[in-house]
Amino acid sequence: MRVARFCSSRFADERERPRVMPIQSIGSRPPIYLIHDLLGDVDCYRGLAGALGPDQPVYALLSFSSDLQGLQSIEGLATSYLTDLRAIDPTGPYILGGFSFGGTVAFEMARQLEEMGEETILVVMIDSWTAAADCKLRSREQLSIVWRKTREQGLLYLASKLRNKCVYWTHRLRNIFFNLTGRFCRGLHLEPPSRVYLALLEKENRRAIRAYQPRVYHGPVLLAVCSRTWDVLSKRQNPFFGWDVLAAQRLEIHGIDAEHMSIMEEPSIREVAQRIKEKLTALDNVEKMRAK
Questions:
Q1: Whole-number Å distance between alpha carbons of 276 and 287
Q2: Long-range contacts of residues 103-106, Cβ cutoff 8 Å, at least 24 apart
Q3: Which SS3 state, helix, strand or coil, does residue 169 take?
Q4: CA-CA distance, 69 to 66, in Å (whole number)?
Q5: What is the DSSP letter of 254?
């Protein structure tokens, strides 16, 4: 069920605000447009902007409450965000990107631009994934893995699995509570508390990711993936996060020594920024060679 409109005044205020927010507006290079993460956050890009240097303009696309209304699919969000982006930069070419959920939306935006015959210089995806990247494992396979790894690593392995399960269920139960609170607020036509709204946004964005059926994109893609990941028994993860079949022609993958929640922090973010700068320089050199 889609989340209902909570407060018309909030939407009215948001319609008066631009969606595209400057993080670093100065610089001579083509700007990078970064899409918010799973929880609608764009502050995570401030460190990246600083690491990219003073000559690289960086803008972020914000999430509004109205995004929970009717556009909550990756394709719908990408179309809506392109409308807002082209309102301030109608001609491009564009550099698009984002962390986690934002990278997936950026990929779809670039694909839609390609479909319209327009160019995207580069798509930057930071630890972004698609639902197709995960293969569900049967219970027998999971038990076999637990037994094998316990024999190899001992009781420390079982302790780490128990700790991860506790973190998972704590987050799961918290979100169940927040979603029930959101339904209660909706029934009374009340604006939900900010933590409840974030839980609703996360739920809808996760649903959108699971439903997304990406199509092939032919432009250059830079994928920065975390080399330190949780050991999840319920599924087998594709090491390319599912993007190898969608952008295989011009896909470049770099492993970053970080976990998902630390890749946007120091020192990992500097390595991500360095990879982006190297890729943009390489693409720029290719264009200069073509122009000769």
A1: 17
A2: 103/35, 103/127, 103/128, 103/223, 104/74, 104/128, 104/129, 104/130, 104/209, 104/212, 104/214, 105/35, 105/74, 105/77, 105/78, 105/81, 106/33, 106/34, 106/35
A3: helix
A4: 5
A5: E
Does residue 258 contact residue 227 with C-beta atoms inside 8 Å? yes
Structure tokens at 154: 């001992």
The DSSP 8-state label assigned to residue 123 in this structure reads E
Contact 204, 271 (CB under 8 A): no
The tokens of 205 are what? 């964005």
Gap between the Cα atoms of 187 and 261, Å rounded: 34
Selected from 3.30.70.330, 3.40.50.1820, 3.30.450.40, 2.60.40.1180, the CATH number assigned to the domain covering 8-135+213-291 reads 3.40.50.1820
pLDDT digits 0-9 by tens, 117-171: 998 999 999 999 877 655 554 666 556 666 777 777 777 766 766 776 676 677 6
Given a contact cutoff of 8 angstroms between Cβ atoms, the answer to whether 229 and 263 are in contact is no
State the angle between helix axes of 74-88 and 101-115 in degrees (0 to 180), rounded to the nearest 10. 70
Instruction: Report pTM.
Output: 0.78
Query: Which amino acid does the sequence have at 164?
Result: N
